[in-house]
Amino acid sequence: MSFIRFDHVTYQYPEAEDTVFALRDVSFRIQTGQFVAIVGANSSGKTTLGRLCNMLLTPSEGRVIVAGMDTAEPDHLYPIRSKVGMIFQNPDNQIVSTTVEEEIAFGLENLQIPSPEIQRRVNTIIQEMDLELLRDRPPHLLSGGQKQLLCIASVLAMEPSCIVFDEPTSLLDPVSRKLVLKQIHKLHKQGMTVLYITHIMEEILMADVLMILKKGHIVFEGSPTEAFSFDDATLYDYHLYPPQLIQVMNVLHESGVTIPKGIVNPKQLTDYLCQYK
Predict the structure, then answer these.
(1) Is residue 51 scored above 70 in pLDDT?
(2) Which one, out of 10, 51, 128, 277, has a CA that is 20 to 30 A from the CA of 161?
(3) Sign of the torsion angle spanned by Cα atoms 194, 81, 50, 182
(4) Which structural domain range is residue 185 located in?
């Protein structure tokens, strides 16, 4: 059974003109444990799609089913949000507490989870996220990457099955970006279902599935490497700009070097070329 299912979903913001839709007749399936990257130009519907997955929004038409629950049912709000967490672009907009430890515990306290269980989860997440040295530090003294890791830790404490990341690295410096991506990779390897919204092309190579949105429609669903095989006009139309790794692989292919599927990072390519004959 699909973990997330969109059936002919349309969404129109209340203030939008009658002919303007954020999403229009969108259908897809996301399986448990998949890493799905979502790209598209500004106003293509990426963030709207993400927010529909955890009932921050509900469809104007169609159905969104999460873990077998219809988001149109108000009683499903908390069960769905316990299953699907969300990380936004700006970590400062998500942090409300005065220390790292208190921030991780905040959501659990709101759910009235018993104190011993809260402490257990907080301690576990702090260890898993390598935040022990930051436990008592005020969040405003953290770096951008540390703040985003704190937001991820706070969501993980709720023990979700899926996390929607809405451009989580777009405001980060390269070092912080690498730190956050490493943690997201780790979560996926542990079985977390990941929806990853981004405009950074290098980041989508780690996905199992790529969805491209254009004006509220899904215009492509497949592997990232398949998408980058489009002709230049199509790539430009979809706002896809091949990352350097893909450009190098294309040059190698034109030179007669066959690159196998599944290579998504420089180390994999280097390892393959070192044994290429």
Answers:
(1) yes
(2) 10
(3) negative
(4) 33-55+77-226
